[in-house]
Design goal:
alpha/beta, TIM Barrel, eight-stranded mixed sheet, Metal-dep_hydrolase_composite
Length: 436
C-alpha cells in the first residue's frame, strides 16, 4: 500500500463513537482510515499530539460575511481567517448584509466572484426568501445554496425585508415542493417594541421571549401544514423549548439552534453602554441560559453556531436602542462554548456534536462534521486545558469589537487542517455548491 500523506495521532481523538486514542491516516484530501494510536504507519508527515485533543473541523452554518457591499464590516478573507483560527473549517454564509443580498442566482454569482481566491476555509451559501422573489427560489436551490433564510420581523437592513403571513406560507410551499430547507429568524413583530431608553434593560424589555415563542408557534404550524423542513435560528428564549419539543414529538420537520453568546453570557453581566453585547434576539437572564443548556442536552436544540454578525466600531454607539445589533464571535465560539460546557460537565464529544456534526447535517454537507473514513481531512489540534485572555485587537475579525474582550476562555486551537493541508495563510478553501 502506498504511504499516507499525513498521519495525526492523539490519545484524545473525538470520533462519532466518542473519544479514543487513534492515529488518523490521510491520503489526498480525505481520511483514509483510523488506526490504533501506536500503529506503525508510513507517511510523508506524522504528527503526534499526545494528550492534546484532535477534533473534526467545526461547521458554522450561521455566518454573516457581508461581502460584497459591506466588506468594511467583514469580508471573506478576514472572516475565513478568523474561522480557521477558531477551528472552523466550513462556514455557510448568510444572504443578507451583502449588497446585493443573495436573493437571486445573479446575486449569488456576484458574491461568488467577490469571494473567489479569498477563502481560507470551505464556504457554502444560504439563499434568501424575501417578498417578490418566489420565482428565484428553485433556481437558487438548483445552483447549490443550502437552503433559504427569511425574517418574520425587520432584518435591520432595508434591502432584506421580512415575509408577511401569506408570503411565508407561499415560500414554504414552494421550498417544500423541491425538498428544500427554510431557516427562520423567528420574532413576532407584533410583540416587539421600541426601547424606552438607551440602557440594556430597556432594550431587553423591547424584545421579550414571548415574541420568539409566538413566532416559533407560527413556524411550527406552517411547517406542519406545508410539509416544509424548517430550522429556527438563534433561539435565545427558553420559552420556545416546549413548543419545539412538542413539534419534534409530533413529527413536524422543525429543528433549532442556539449560539455561544446565549450559552455563555447573561443579561445581568452586560455593562451599561457596552453595545458589543447587543444582538437580536437579545442575551437573556442567567436562569434562561441554564434552561437553554438543558434544552441542548435533551436534543431540543441541535446546533450551536456563531451568528457572527460584525460591524464597524462606529456602529456600536453606547446606546442599546441605536447601536447595530450583532455579535462578532466566529474565532471564539469553540473556546467560549467549551469553557461553559466543561464547567457544566459536558464533554468534547458533546461540543463536537453540537458544533460540527449537527450543523453539517443541517446544511447537507457530506464529508464534513466527523473524523471518519471517507470524510474530508478537516482536523483541529486543540488544547482543552489552555487558558486564553481574549484581546479583540488580536483577533482576525476585521473590526476589534466583541463582548469576549478581556475574558479568559478555556481551550486553544493550535493547528487547523483543511482537507489534509494546514491552514497557513494561503487561501485554499472551496465553494460547496450542491451535493457532492
Amino acid at each position: 500500500m502506498t504511504p499516507f500523506d499525513l498521519v495525526v495521532r492523539s490519545r484524545r481523538t473525538v470520533t462519532p463513537e466518542g473519544e479514543r486514542a487513534a492515529a488518523v491516516a490521510v491520503r489526498g484530501e480525505r481520511i483514509a482510515a483510523l488506526h490504533d494510536y501506536t500503529a506503525p504507519l508510513e507517511a510523508a508527515e506524522d504528527v503526534d499530539l499526545r494528550d492534546l485533543a484532535l477534533l473534526p473541523g467545526l461547521v458554522d452554518s450561521h455566518v454573516h460575511v457581508n461581502e460584497p457591499g459591506r466588506t468594511h464590516w467583514e469580508g471573506f478573507d478576514s472572516a475565513t481567517r478568523a474561522a480557521a483560527a477558531g477551528g472552523v473549517t466550513t462556514i455557510v454564509d448568510m444572504p443578507l448584509n451583502s449588497l446585493p443580498p443573495t436573493v437571486s442566482t445573479e446575486a449569488l454569482e456576484v458574491k461568488l466572484r467577490a469571494a473567489e481566491g479569498q477563502c481560507h476555509v470551505d464556504t457554502a451559501f444560504w439563499g434568501g426568501a424575501v417578498p417578490g422573489n418566489l420565482k428565484d427560489l428553485r433556481p437558487l436551490h438548483e445552483r447549490g445554496v443550502r437552503g433559504f433564510k427569511c425574517f418574520l420581523s425587520p432584518s435591520g437592513v432595508d434591502e432584506f425585508p421580512p415575509l408577511g403571513a401569506g408570503e411565508l406560507r407561499a415560500a414554504l410551499t414552494e421550498v417544500a415542493g423541491f425538498g428544500g430547507l427554510m431557516v427562520v429568524h423567528a420574532e413576532d413583530p407584533a410583540l416587539l417594541g421600541e426601547p424606552d431608553g438607551p440602557g440594556y434593560r430597556a432594550f431587553l424589555d423591547s424584545r421579550p421571549g414571548a415574541a420568539e415563542r409566538s413566532a416559533v408557534e407560527r413556524v411550527v404550524r406552517l411547517a406542519a401544514e406545508t410539509g416544509c423542513r424548517v430550522h429556527v435560528l438563534h433561539v435565545s428564549s427558553a420559552e420556545c423549548l416546549d413548543v419545539l419539543e412538542a413539534a419534534r414529538a409530533e413529527g413536524v420537520p422543525v429543528s433549532a439552534e442556539t449560539c455561544p453568546h446565549y450559552l455563555t453570557l447573561a443579561a445581568e453581566q452586560v455593562p451599561e453602554g457596552e453595545t458589543a453585547y447587543k444582538c437580536c434576539p437579545p442575551i437573556r437572564s442567567g436562569h434562561n441560559r441554564d434552561l437553554l443548556w438543558d434544552g441542548l442536552a435533551r436534543g431540543v436544540l441541535s446546533c450551536v453556531v456563531s451568528d457572527h454578525s460584525p460591524s464597524t466600531a462606529d456602529l456600536k454607539v453606547p446606546d442599546f436602542a441605536a447601536a447595530w445589533g450583532g455579535i462578532a464571535s466566529l474565532q471564539l465560539g469553540l473556546a467560549a462554548v467549551w469553557t461553559e460546557a466543561a464547567r457544566r460537565g459536558h464533554t468534547l464529544s458533546d461540543v463536537i456534536r453540537w458544533m460540527s456534526a449537527a450543523p453539517a447535517e443541517l446544511a447537507a454537507l457530506p464529508g464534513k462534521g466527523a473524523i471518519a473514513a471517507g470524510h474530508d481531512a478537516d482536523l483541529v489540534a486543540f488544547d482543552p486545558e489552555a487558558d486564553t485572555l481574549i484581546d479583540a485587537a488580536r483577533l482576525h475579525h476585521k473590526n476589534p469589537v466583541t463582548p469576549y474582550h478581556g475574558r479568559t476562555l478555556k481551550g486553544a486551537v493550535l493547528t487547523t487542517w483543511l482537507r489534509g493541508r494546514p491552514v497557513d495563510g494561503a487561501p485554499h478553501g472551496r465553494f460547496l455548491l450542491g451535493a457532492r
